[in-house]
Amino acid sequence: MTAGVEQLLSCLAARAVSQPQMDSVVSGAETLSAGALWSRSGELAEWLRDHGVERLGLWADNGIDWVLADLACLRADICLVGLPTFFSAEQREYALTASGVDCLLLGPEAAEMLAGPSQTIQQASGLRQLVALELRECERSPLPSATGKITFTSGSTGQPKGVCLSNAQCLAVAASLVDAVDCPGARHLSLLPLAVLLENIAGLYRTLLAGGVVILPDPADLGLSGSSGVHLPGFLWALERWQPETLILVPEWLQGLDRALAAGWRPPLSLRFVAVGGARVAPALLQRIRDRGLPVYEGYGLSECASVVSLNTPAADRPGSSGRPLPHVHVSVEDGELVVAGNTFLAYLGESPHPPHCPVRTGDIAELDAEGFVRIAGRRKHLLISSFGRNISPEWVESELLAGGGLMQAVVLGDARPHCVALIWPADPRVSDAELEARVARVNARLPDYARVRRWARLPQPLSAQSGLLTGNGRLRRDRFAETYRSLIERLYLPTEEMTA
C-alpha cells in the first residue's frame, strides 16, 4: 500500500474510532457516518477479495454505494473502472471489454437487462442500491502492475480512451489540493459524476482527506440529463438546500450561475471555494461572477496527470490564468505547448507503458508568466472541448453526418459551447429542411449525447478552395471558416425565441 493510500485510509479509520457518528457522506435522504463508511467499505472489500475480483467496473449515478465501492477497491488493492453513465451503449461495452472488467456494479434493473445466460447477479456485502454482475468471460488485457484506476475520457473519436493511473498518483493530487484549497472539514457538493476523474479526486478524495462531508444529490433532483444538459432550477435548489462550502463546476454551470445572479438570485453565504475547470472560461464571465461575490477559481488539468495540474487559489490568484502548478508536478512550455512532468499516467489502455520520467505533452498552447501562472490559449489540434468538459473530434461527428447520405459537406462546431452545431450543404440543394432534420436526427441516435448536433443551418454555398475555406487537397481551414460564418454560428446558439424573432 502506497503512502498516499495509507494516509487516506488512516484518516478514515481514525475518524471511525474518534468520531463514529460524524457525517461523512450524504446522498438524498441517506446519511453515512464515519463509522458506517469504514465498516461497510471494509465489508465490500472483503466480499470482493473473497470473490476473486481483480478489476471492478462501476456503472452508476453518484451515490453512497459509489463511494463505498471506490474505497473498497483502495482497501483491497483492486483496480476500479468507473464508467460515466452518459456513455452510449456501444462506448460502455467497448470500455468494459477493453479494460477486462470481471465484475460490474450497477443498478438491479440495468443488471437484469445486461446479464447473459451464463452470468450471475449477486448482492455484494456493504451495498444497498447496487448489485454485482459477474463478467468472467471478458478477455484480460495486461495492465501496468501499479494500476489502481482506469479512467475513460469521453472519447475524442467514437470510442473512449482508457488512461491507467496508480492510486498513489491520484492521492498525490488530492493531497496537494487539500493544502491549496485550504477548507478543512468543509461540506462539498458533488455535481459532476464521480466517474469523472476531476470530481473523483478533487471532490471525493480531497474532501475525505480534509475531514469534510461529501454531499451527493440525486441527478433527478438536479434535473440533469446526460452530460450536456443543465437544469438551472435544480442546480440552484441544490445549492440552497445543501449550503455547501466547496464545489466544482464546468463552465456551462458557471454561465447558469451568471444568469441567475443577473436575475437577482443570491448565492448561499456558505460558499468558500468554487473551482471551475474542464474547458476554457471567458475571463469576463469569471470576473462578473466574482464581482457578485462568488469565490470562483479557475484551474487546469488532464486525465494523463490524474486530473488537476494547476489552480488559482485565494493565496495565489491571477484572473485569466489557470493558476500556478500544484507542488507535485513541474510544468514547462516547449514550442508553445504546455508540457507536464511528474505524476504522469502509467499507460493508455492496450498500449505500451508510459515511461515514468517522460513528461506529457498536453497539446495545449500555453505560456507561463513571470510569476509562474499558467495561461492556456487553446488546442494545438482541432479537438473541441465542450463547456461541460467533454472531448469531441469534429471530424468524427462530421464523418457520421456525411456517412448518413444526402449531405455533401458538414462542419461541426462547439468548442467551449454547451453542445455541437453544424453547418451543412446537402447533396441536393432542393431537399427540404424537414428531410435534413430527419437525417441529422438519425445520426444523433447513433452518437452519445455530448456529441449530438443540437442545431444546424444550411451553408449559403458549398465550400471550395476558391473561397479560401478549403486547402488545395480539400481540407477545411477551420479558423477561417469560423471567422467567415461567425454570425451564422452565433445565431445557432441563440435561445429559440431569439432565433425566430
Walk me through the structure.
With 501 residues, this protein is an alpha/beta fold. The protein has 3 domains: 1-22 and 30-141, Rossmann fold, CATH 3.40.50; 174-342 and 354-387, 3-Layer(aba) Sandwich (Rossmann fold), CATH 3.40.50.12780; 393-499, 2-Layer Sandwich (GMP Synthetase, Chain A, domain 3), CATH 3.30.300.30. Helix content is 34%, strand content 23%. Helix 10 (251-262) crosses helix 11. The protein is globular, with a radius of gyration of 23 Å. The mean pLDDT is 91.
Fold topology:
Blueprint: H1 3-18, E1 23-27, E2 30-33, H2 34-50, E3 55-58, H3 64-76, E4 79-82, H4 89-99, E5 103-106, H5 108-114, E6 121-122, E7 131-134, E8 147-152, E9 162-166, H6 167-181, E10 187-189, H7 197-209, E11 213-215, H8 219-222, H9 232-242, E12 246-249, H10 251-262, E13 273-276, H11 283-291, E14 296-302, E15 307-311, E16 324-325, E17 330-334, E18 337-341, E19 347-348, E20 360-368, E21 374-379, E22 384-385, E23 391-392, H12 394-403, E24 407-413, E25 420-426, H13 433-444, E26 453-458, H14 478-484, H15 486-492, H16 496-499
Parallel strand pairs: 1-11, 3-4, 3-5, 4-8, 10-11, 10-12, 12-13, 13-14, 25-26
Antiparallel strand pairs: 1-2, 5-7, 6-7, 8-9, 9-19, 14-15, 15-16, 17-18, 18-20, 20-21, 22-23, 24-25
Per CATH, the class of the largest domain reads Alpha Beta
Number of domains: 3
Approximate shape: globular
Largest sheet features: 9 strands, mixed
CATH homologous superfamily identity of the largest domain: ANL, N-terminal domain
How many distinct beta strands?
A: 26
- The side-by-side strand order for the widest beta sheet comes to 2-1-11-10-12-13-14-15-16
From the alpha carbons, calculate the radius of gyration and give it in angstroms: 23 Å
Residue windows where pLDDT falls under 50 for at least 5 positions: none
At CATH level 2, the architecture of the largest domain is 3-Layer(aba) Sandwich
Query: If you average the pLDDT, what whole number results?
Result: 91
CATH topology of the largest domain: Rossmann fold
Structural class: alpha/beta
Q: Percent range for helical residues?
A: 25-40%
Strand percentage: 15-25%
End-to-end separation: 63 Å
Summed up, the helix count is 16
